[in-house]
Write a structure and sequence with these properties.
302 residues, 8-stranded mixed sheet, 8 strands, binds nicotinamide-adenine-dinucleotide
Length: 302
């Protein structure tokens, strides 16, 4: 694929990392943010990451910040949005982007869970709009879910998948635009059961995490659930499901236990307490452990 001109809208946690991946792949990247401090820090954050990962620091020269949105997207082949997870903001922003881009530019949203149909529904040319759901940190977690709507052209999907594959990511095609796509549906189906186990007094929060990390969590990176089902046999899987599934939580909305935590200000690490209590040292240690693990996984895949 020829080198492309990529515009990243939103220079926060995800946006600066996405810009980094595309710049490292040799593309020309513009980046913009409505908050000057975020835009100003984007290149410094990328440089810190490149140094930390031992990557080519000359890639930084391919990232050009623009204060003005229209300037950032005007010449782009591909625009990816990574602003706050707010439907109204994203809809409004894509309206502005569409007025400033070339008619053939592909437009992508990095929303975590909002259906792309809702974000892109007001556009004039909906055939070039899609979702690309990255995972944090974008330069360490391989997956990018590429989500088409009923309007998205196959050509836009194919081009976007190729762009990400050639940038070293693992793109997958999500064929129907459902809330949470594939990854966050799976993740939060598990989280609901985790919370239900605590809510129902089966075990405490620490035990839930220990059970996962010390058992099937160890295998998950190399053995997906459906590979696992084939490994043990679909007949055994069926027998297990007949016994266990009727007992699993099926509450259609958030569980009362989670609602209670939030209502009581137990917002997690930022408040020092959520499902568990967290000292600043414990928080830093956990963040460092996750980063270390992801870096090692990346090296062993390289
Ligand atoms: N953090 C994650 O783990 C993660 C993972 C996957 C997807 N996402 C999604 O990516 C998106 C960004 O998340 P984040 O974690 O990077 O958030 P963030 O808060 O770190 O960054 C968002 C940035 O958007 C900027 N912004 C706000 N309004 C803007 C506007 N009108 N124009 C330009 N910039 C604007 C903010 O100033 C901020 O710098 C969200 O939709 C989120 O759901 C996040």
């Amino acid at each position: 694929m020829a080198k492309a001109r990529i515009a990243v809208v939103g220079a926060g946690l995800m946006g600066h990392g996405i810009a980094q991946v595309f710049a490292l792949a040799g593309h020309e990247v513009t980046i913009t943010d409505s908050v000057v401090a975020s835009l100003d820090s984007a290149k410094a954050r990328i440089l810190t990451n490149l140094k930390d990962l031992g990557e080519d620091q000359s890639a930084l020269a391919r990232v050009v910040p623009h204060v003005n949105l229209a300037d950032a997207v005007a010449n782009a082949d591909y625009v990816v949005e990574a602003v706050l997870e707010d439907l109204d903001l994203k809809r409004k922003l894509f309206g502005e982007i569409e007025r400033a881009v070339r008619p053939d530019a592909i437009l992508a949203s990095n929303t975590s869970v909002i259906p792309i149909t809702q974000i892109m529904g007001g556009l004039q040319r909906r055939e070039r709009a899609l979702g690309t759901h990255w995972w944090n940190p974008p330069y360490l977690v391989p997956l990018v879910e590429v989500i088409g709507t009923e309007w998205t052209s196959q050509a836009a999907i194919d081009w976007t998948i190729k762009l990400h594959a050639e940038a070293g990511k693992t793109p997958v095609h999500v064929k129907k635009d459902v809330p949470g796509f594939v990854g966050n549906r799976l993740q939060h189906a598990l989280w609901r059961e985790c919370i239900a186990l605590v809510q129902n007094g089966i075990c405490d929060a620490e035990t839930v995490d220990t059970v996962i990390k010390a058992s099937f969590g160890r295998r998950l990176a190399v053995l997906g659930p459906l590979e696992n089902a084939d490994l043990v046999g679909t007949d055994l899987t069926l027998a297990i499901h007949r016994t266990v599934l009727p007992d699993l939580d099926r509450t259609p909305g958030p569980l009362p236990y989670l609602e209670g935590l939030v209502a009581n200000g137990k917002l997690g690490m930022k408040a020092g307490e959520g499902f568990r209590t967290w000292t600043p040292e414990q928080q830093s240690a956990l963040r460092a452990r996750v980063l270390q693990h992801l870096k090692k996984a990346r090296e062993s895949n390289a």
